[in-house]
Amino acid sequence: xxxxxxxxxxxxxxxxxxxxxxxxxxxxxxxxxxxxxxxxxxxxxxxxxxxxxxxxxxxxxxxxxxxxxxxxxxxxxxxxxxxxxxxxxxxxxxxxxxxxxxxxxxxxxxxxxxxxxxxxxxxxxxxxxxxxxxxxxxxxxxxxxxxxxxxxxxxxxxxxxxxxxxxxxxxxxxxxxxxxxxxxxxxxxxxxxxxxxxxxxxxxxxxxxxxxxxxxxxxxxxxxxxxxxxxxxxxxxxxxxxxxxxxxxxxxxxxxxxxxxxxxxxxxxxxxxxxxxxxxxxxxxxxxxxxxxxxxxxxxxxxxxxxxxxxxxxxxxxxxxxxxxxxx
Length: 328
Hints:
single chain; mainly alpha; 3-stranded antiparallel β-sheet; 11 helices; about 55% helix; about 5% strand; disordered N terminus
């Protein structure tokens, strides 16, 4: 019955990938990435303001996270696929051609995290790093799902050959198409698998959040575990894995394992350090109130500046407010 409904999934033709309007070339892949950024920013804004964040602060943070996230995504991809960009006669400008595809999500997570940290330590914001990360989770998963449509448009991110009725059609002219395969071979649509995995993750994680209200970065740790688990399998059946491997395991699979480990560590450490409720998405003394000015802890509440509790430590740990309150 299923085979009668779906015999294979056709890949979009080149006409779908870009359009030329006068001197401009508009790439659908880039538009989908932009759409993902917009929906993630909108959803994060809604969640953060509901928890006491200042309206518009997400846009300020985006100015840090998006550029560094894009740089990290491209750098990671090029670093793990050097033979695609560095060879005799290669056009080195292709290293920067992000509109042609080739943006690694693990790289974007690293770059985006650096951007978020920088935004949080600026005197203007004083947000808790982990509070913002928790608010970002569902929007991030949705943005990743939207971005995977760009991989579909660019005829990339497909897996091993399959006989399943939802196999993805790929032209033999595709540079990642394995040699020697018979005509009519179709492949696992990894882009679709990841979209489904991300959407299921949104539903599951939001259900967990609604029931248990994990904060202090614990919710983001759950995201890392979920996403890492899905990617570890998807990367293992990918037709064009990274060019490097260790113990026979591709780099991207190790990156997925690392995400799981980091998620577990974040949950364990933050659960131990912060058993109480999260009082604010801002660090102590910098809370925002509607219609009021930010409170400057250095001038109005010197007691909050505890010796040995540096700005960097506050950002990484979420500061020890819950612990100190429970002991007072």
